[in-house]
Design brief:
single chain; mainly beta; 6-stranded antiparallel beta sheet; elongated
């Protein structure tokens, strides 16, 4: 089974990290995401985003990433991620994630750059592992019965 979606969203400008009613610099985002599970224990997911903002101004920047000041500039950025999650056992899962951001106009990070990240996360469910270990180490053959050897 798989799902997907496309979203185009205008966003209000951010003022000191909080949403405000300032729409002087229109910001927009196009977002495409997809998930797919080709088998019961495997999930694949991905997302791509492209965004922009109009009327942005930057101050002059110095060392180590010098750049001139900019006024009333239209800026864009884009990024993507891919994720794979697999249930190796009912108590051990493994997730791999890759992310990429291209800040072409220094709009999101303040520096024209590309950023990448790789994450590998083994997930160990201790309660499931402990339950499995306790059951296998138990001298009791069944969940609630005990053999006495007498008939």
């Amino acid at each position: 089974m798989g799902t997907g979606g496309l979203r185009v969203r205008p966003s209000p400008a951010l003022d000191a990290g909080t949403l405000s009613d300032d729409t002087a610099n229109p910001r927009w985002i196009v977002d495409l995401d997809v998930t797919w599970s080709p088998m019961p224990r495997l999930i694949l997911a991905g997302e791509a985003v492209y965004g922009g903002e109009s009327g942005v101004s930057f101050r002059r920047r110095g060392v180590p990433f010098a750049a001139p000041a900019a006024t009333d500039k239209d800026v864009n950025w884009w990024g993507l991620y891919a994720l794979a999650h697999y249930d190796i056992y009912d108590w051990l899962w493994l997730t791999f994630r890759y992310g990429f951001l291209r800040d072409e106009d220094a709009a999101r990070t303040g520096v024209e750059q590309s950023l990448q990240s790789f994450t590998v996360a083994p997930i160990l469910h201790l309660s499931r592992l402990a339950r499995r270990f306790v059951r296998s180490a138990s001298p009791i053959p069944g969940p609630l019965t005990r053999s006495t050897g007498l008939t």
